[in-house]
């Protein structure tokens, strides 16, 4: 096998794009920009020509902003050909279909194409939810059928999942990996399983958010702010679902749930179904979790500044939270700060008077207060980086007095955090979501869907997570994440929180999750 560059389809290869909708037009643009002659076709008369016009306009706008060379635009547009007859695809070396998301429609199309294109023409599907194996099953030459899953909008989103069906040849996979890379994309290889990598591993981001809302841990704006400002995610789950559209997001969850025979890990949320029923589909409908017609966006619940004098603070241990708290309090000129050698026992990170502060480990604050025999106990949610986070979430045990909670709030405010209070749900918001993202990603790797490296890369490039889930697990420690999930599983008694075998193994061995082990 040659180098990856020599494996890429030469730019002289004719690329046919079938389906000139949102995805097809974007993919045609990418292929033409990369230098390929592109034929674009759609079942609806005039749709392909309209797509070429749209691409030309988009590229001309980019040229006007000096983001692309004007000559390149005219060369690219010349390479684009709208055709109306499938026979016009006879010279194609690669076909990418982006037609309606329907198994029978895709099968029929590929069967028709198989009799038009050369026998070695690669047939790629942009499906996001249908089994590539199933699409290929009744088509002549299933070894050349492959998934090429672009993300929306295709010209901007870097990730492309190259999906191997059971019959897909490894040569075709390698060619498409190399071709996507030559087109300036970041390809990752995956097996044809429900949701592939990204649409599967991202499910807990929405599911845990919805569950937190259902359990009234906080309102949408507060949970979103915590996920952004503490978790480091670009958007919180509710604003993101509103942007994606609840019809689309719910349908993906439902299809992954159904395809996994109703595995409770993927159970869709009734809270989201209600929005779908109401037609509150998100931004595009003017209303979803948020009302986009209202003059003022809802603000996250933020604790008012506590002005009572806070007693001396003691910070224990070398955890990320302890180190960042000490540094931030010192930087803000906090005078009464004690930093004894050694830890505070039982995971205590800080004390302020008789208030003890700990990082959540998947138990509720109330449960932890009982286990520790400390009434005035406050939990802190996970942050991507406690050194730079602007907000932190706290939850108090039922037994914690208000004055004692205020001391924890005062400590965090002195360290420069905005503080949001969550109700006392197990695992809080960021910790629980991140632990579930890690678990799902570990399980995908465990089932051979992709390598550990591909999984992290896919989540970084496909959904712009601030850190690959498996690298995040390594930063926190697989054993700590396993503990969080075991505590969640004990609390809820649901199969949903069961531990991935791979995470369990790495927690025991101490080996890293983010790298493949022979
Ligand atoms: N929209 C997304 O975010 C997204 C992301 C990744 C993958 N996908 C997948 O890409 C595919 C297309 O999605 P889209 O959002 O571009 O849809 P779209 O509705 O915007 O476009 C589909 C186009 O295909 C045409 N079409 C339908 N059946 C056809 C056929 N048999 N032959 C030729 N043309 C046909 C339609 O006329 C339409 O123009 C689907 O499989 C979808 O699951 C979509």
Provide structural commentary.
By secondary structure, the protein is of the alpha/beta class. The chain folds into 3 domains: 10-192, NAD(P)-binding Rossmann-like Domain (Rossmann fold); 208-285, Orthogonal Bundle (N-(1-d-carboxylethyl)-l-norvaline Dehydrogenase, domain 2); 313-421, Transcription Regulator spoIIAA. The chain has 21 helices and 15 strands. The chain has helices spanning 4-7, 22-33, 47-64, 70-78, 103-114, 132-136, 170-182, 198-201, 203-214, 220-229, 237-244, 246-259, 270-278, 320-331, 365-372, 402-414, 430-446, 452-462, 469-476, 478-492, 501-509, and strands at 14-18, 38-41, 80-82, 92-97, 122-125, 145-150, 159-164, 186-191, 313-315, 337-338, 348-352, 355-359, 377-380, 391-396, 418-421. The strands form 2 sheets. An 8-stranded mixed sheet has the order 3-2-1-4-5-6-7-8, sandwiched between helices. Strands 10-9-11-12-13-14-15 form a 7-stranded mixed sheet, sandwiched between helices. The two termini are 22 Å apart. 52% of the residues are buried. The model has no long low-confidence stretch (mean pLDDT 96).
Question: How do the strands and helices of this protein lay out in sequence?
Answer:
Layout: H1 4-7, E1 14-18, H2 22-33, E2 38-41, H3 47-64, H4 70-78, E3 80-82, E4 92-97, H5 103-114, E5 122-125, H6 132-136, E6 145-150, E7 159-164, H7 170-182, E8 186-191, H8 198-201, H9 203-214, H10 220-229, H11 237-244, H12 246-259, H13 270-278, E9 313-315, H14 320-331, E10 337-338, E11 348-352, E12 355-359, H15 365-372, E13 377-380, E14 391-396, H16 402-414, E15 418-421, H17 430-446, H18 452-462, H19 469-476, H20 478-492, H21 501-509
Helix pairs in contact: 2-3, 3-4, 9-17, 17-19, 17-20, 19-20, 20-21
The protein binds nicotinamide-adenine-dinucleotide.
Nicotinamide-adenine-dinucleotide (NAD) is lined by residues 18-24, 42-44, 47, 98-101, 105, 109, 126-128, 150-152.
């Amino acid at each position: 096998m040659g180098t990856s560059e020599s494996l890429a389809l030469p730019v002289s290869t004719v690329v046919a794009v079938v389906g000139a909708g949102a995805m097809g037009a974007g993919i045609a643009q990418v292929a033409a920009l990369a230098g390929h002659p592109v034929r674009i076709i759609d079942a609806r008369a005039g749709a392909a020509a309209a797509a070429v016009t749209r691409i030309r306009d988009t590229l001309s706008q980019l040229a006007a902003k000096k983001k692309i060379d004007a000559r390149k635009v005219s060369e690219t547009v010349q390479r684009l050909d709208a055709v109306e007859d499938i026979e016009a695809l006879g010279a194609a070396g690669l076909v990418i279909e982006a037609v309606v998301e329907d198994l029978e429609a895709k099968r029929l199309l590929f069967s028709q194409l198989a009799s038009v294109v050369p026998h070695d023409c690669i047939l790629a599907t942009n499906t996001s939810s249908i089994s590539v194996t199933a699409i290929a099953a009744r088509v002549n030459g299933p070894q050349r059928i492959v998934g090429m899953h672009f993300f929306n909008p295709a010209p901007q989103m870097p990730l492309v999942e190259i999906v191997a069906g059971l019959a897909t040849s490894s040569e075709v996979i390698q060619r498409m990996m190399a071709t996507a890379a030559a087109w300036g994309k970041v390809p990752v290889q995956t097996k044809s399983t429900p949701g592939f990598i990204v649409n599967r591993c991202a499910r807990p981001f929405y599911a845990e958010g919805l569950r937190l809302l259902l359990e009234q841990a906080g309102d949408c704006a507060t949970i979103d702010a915590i996920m952004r400002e503490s978790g480091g995610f670009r958007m919180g789950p509710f604003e993101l679902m509103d942007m994606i559209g609840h019809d689309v997001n719910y349908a993906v969850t439902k299809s992954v749930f159904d395809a996994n025979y109703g595995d409770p890990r993927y159970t869709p949320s009734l809270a989201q179904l209600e929005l779908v029923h109401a037609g509150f589909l998100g931004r595009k409908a003017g209303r979803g979790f948020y009302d986009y017609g209202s003059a003022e966006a809802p603000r996250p619940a933020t604790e008012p500044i506590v002005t009572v004098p806070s007693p001396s603070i003691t910070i224990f241990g070398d955890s990320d939270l302890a180190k960042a708290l000490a540094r931030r309090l010192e930087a803000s000129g906090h005078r009464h700060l004690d930093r004894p050698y050694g830890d505070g026992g039982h995971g205590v990170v800080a004390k302020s008077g008789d208030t003890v502060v700990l990082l959540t480990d998947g138990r509720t604050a109330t449960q932890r207060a009982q286990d520790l025999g400390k009434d005035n106990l406050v939990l802190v949610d996970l942050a991507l980086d406690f050194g730079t986070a602007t907000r932190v979430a706290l939850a108090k045990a039922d037994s914690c007095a208000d004055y004692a909670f205020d001391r924890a709030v005062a400590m965090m405010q002195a360290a420069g955090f905005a503080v949001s209070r969550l109700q006392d749900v197990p695992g809080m918001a960021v910790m629980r979501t991140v632990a579930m993202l890690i678990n799902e990603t570990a399980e995908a790797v465990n089932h051979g869907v992709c390598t550990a490296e591909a999984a992290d890369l896919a989540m970084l490039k496909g959904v712009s997570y601030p850190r690959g889930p498996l690298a995040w697990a390594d930063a926190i420690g697989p054993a700590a994440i396993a503990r969080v999930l075991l505590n969640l599983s004990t609390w809820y008694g649901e199969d949903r929180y069961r531990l991935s075998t791979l995470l369990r193994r790495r927690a025991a061995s101490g080996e890293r999750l983010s790298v493949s082990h022979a």
